[in-house]
Amino acid sequence: MRAKDWSDTRLGPAEQWTDALKLMVAVVLANRVPMLLCWGPEYVAIYNDAFRSVLGAKHPSALGQPMRVGWPDLAHVLEPLIDAPFNGGPSSSADDVPLEIDRHGFLEETHFTFACSPVPDATAPHGIGGVTNGIHTPSWVGHTMGETLAKGVRADLDNLDAEGGGGRFWERLDQIPTEELWETHQRQKLELAVFARRRLRAQFARHGEAPAVLDALEAALDPDVLTIGFARRFATYKRAGLLFSDIDRVARLVRSEERPIQIVYAGKAHPADRPGQQVIQEIFARSMSDQFRGRVFVLEDYDIRIARYLVAGVDIWLNTPRRPLEASGTSGMKAAANGVVNLSVLDGWWDEGFTGDNGWAIGGRETNPDEAAQDWADAQDLYRILEDEVLPRYYERDAHGIPVAWVKLMRRSMASTLWRFSTTRMLHDYVERMYLPNAVVSPERMPSDGVPPSVAVSRRSTSARSTGG
Q1: How do residues 115-132 score in pLDDT, each as one tens digit?
Q2: Would you put residue 364 in left (φ > 0), alpha (ψ -120 to 50) or beta?
Q3: How many CB atoms lie within 10 A of CB 413?
Q4: Do 90 and 145 have their domain in common?
Q5: pLDDT tens column, 442-460
Q6: Is the bond preceding residue 324 a cis peptide, omega within 30 degrees?
Q7: Which of 84, 116, 148 is the last residue of a domain?
Q8: Residue 124 lies in a domain
Q9: I need a surface site. Which of 160, 314, 442, 457 has the fewest CB within 10 A?
C-alpha cells in the first residue's frame, strides 16, 4: 500500500489526495483487523495488510482498482451494501454472508460479515460535522488552583456561562499576581509529590525493594525540578517511549546539575494489547535502571485519582501520538486548565488548541509514510524543544526566584482552554449547531406566533453541572 505508485490509478498521486482520504487511509493502515476502504463513485479499493489474506492471489492487482474490476465476484454483494450509506442513507451491515469466491484459481465457499459506514469527503454534498470534546472543569481543576481563581478573578467553575462585571474570568487572569499564581502551582506540585511518594513506597515495597530504597523515596519528585507528565492508555500509536529514542541524550537531561528534568508515567494498556503492555514494561525497566532511577517514575494501577493529581501537579503535559491517529484526547485539556503547559504532536484536540503562545507543538502537520523516519524526526524535535525552549524558560528566574516567562505561558495555557475545551462549550455546540438547526416541529404543535418552542432554549440551560469526571 505505502510503496504503490498511485499516479496511474483513478485516485491520482497520493500527495494530491484530500485530507479526508489521507485520514481514512491512515486509519485503515493502523488497524490489525482486515479493513477495506472503497473510495469514490467507482469504489476504488484500498486495504490494509490484514486484508491481503482475504484477497489471496488477487493481491496486489486489486489494490487501487474499482471493485468491479479488482474483485468482480464480490462486487455484486458489496456494492448494494455500500450504495445506501454512500448515497446518504444509514450505515448498513450483513452477518454471515455465504459467498463462493475465487481467490486462488478455484471457487471457495466462504462466510463474511460486512459493516459499511459512510465517510463523506470534503467535496461531498453532506459532509461530516464535528463537536470537539470538553472536560467538566470543576472536576479537574485542582482545589488549590480553584481557590486562587475564585479569589483572584471571581471565577465560578460551576457556571462558565456567568459573566462578571469585568467579563469572562479566563480573560482576566493577568489580575492574579505572578507570585500568587506560581505559588499556587508549586503547592499543587508538592501535593502531587506527597501523593506519589506514598504510592511509590507501597509499590516498591510490594516489589520487594530494600528498606533503604523505600526511605529514599521520601525525596522523590523534587518540586523544584521541571516535571513532565505522561498518563493515558498505553496503545502503541501513542508512542509513550518516544522520549527514550536517544537514551544518552535523555539521560543527560534528567541528570543535568543545572537544569534537570523528572518524568512521571502512568496508564494502562488494554488486557489484549500485548504490544501496549510491552511498552509499559520497557519504560518501567528504564525507570529502575541506574541511568534513570530517581528521575523517572511509573505509577501503577492508574485511576482517576492518580489522574487528578498528575494533571494538576506537573509542569509539562507530554503527548506524542503518531499523527493522525489521535481521536481527541482530554488529558491535555485537564492539565491546561490547571496552568500546566502542553508539549504535544499536532493531533487530536491540540491541533485545534495550539495557538503558538500557549505551549509547544512537536513536528508539523505533514506525516511521513515511513513510520520509523517519522518517529526519529519527532524525537529530535522533542529534544530540541526541551533543550532550547522549555528548560531555559522554566529555569530563568527573577530576583525573587519566580520564572516570570513561564508563568506567562501558564496563563496563556489556562486562558486558551478553560472555556474553549469545557463541557459547557461542548453542550452549546451540540444544542446550537446540531440539535436546534435540525429540530422539527409538527404543524399541529406549532404555537400561534409561529415560533417553534425548541428555539427558546437559553444559553444558561446548556451549562454542565454534573459532579462526575
Answers
A1: 776 665 655 444 556 788
A2: beta
A3: 26
A4: no
A5: 455 555 555 444 443 333 3
A6: yes
A7: 116
A8: no
A9: 442
The C-alpha angle 51, 55, 57, rounded to 5 degrees, equals 135
Specify whether the backbone of 56 is left (phi greater than 0), alpha (psi in -120 to 50) or beta.
left
Backbone dihedral region for residue 246 (phi beyond 0: left; psi -120 to 50: alpha; all else: beta): beta
Give the CATH number of the domain where residue 49 resides. Answer: 3.30.450
- Whether 293 maps to a domain, the answer reads yes
One domain, residues 182 and 247 = yes
Total domain count for the chain?
2
| Structure-block grid coordinates of residue 258 | 543545572
Provide mean pLDDT across the span 257-276: 94
Are 100 and 158 members of one domain? Answer: no
The number of C-alpha atoms within 13 Å of 18 and in the hemisphere containing its C-beta is 12
Which of 185, 174, 159 minimizes the C-alpha distance to 419?
159
DSSP assignment of 59-109, as one string? TTTTTTSBHHHH-HHHHHHHHHHHHHHHTT---EEEEEEEEEEESSSSEEE
Helices (H), 207-273: 211-216, 247-255
Residue 431, domain member (yes or no): no
Long-range contacts of 172-180 (CB under 8 A, 24+ apart): 173/411, 173/414, 173/415, 174/411, 176/148, 176/149, 176/152, 176/411, 177/152, 178/402, 178/404, 178/407, 179/400, 179/402, 180/148, 180/152
The sign of the dihedral angle between the CA atoms of 68, 69, 70, 72 is positive
> Which residue bears the cell 459493516?
115
Kindly report the pTM of this predicted structure. 0.75
Q: 319 and 271 in one domain?
A: yes
**From CA 217, how far away is CA 261, in angstroms rounded?**
17
Q: Which residues pair with 354 in a beta bridge?
A: none
Domain of 82? 6-116
> Over 80: is that where the pLDDT of 469 sits?
no
Residues 10 and 96 in one domain: yes
Q: Which one of 54, 81, 116 terminates a domain?
A: 116
Peptide bond into 60 cis (omega under 30): yes
Q: Which of 68, 61, 13 is nearest to 44 (CA)?
A: 68
Question: Considering the domain boundaries, does residue 457 fall inside one?
Answer: no
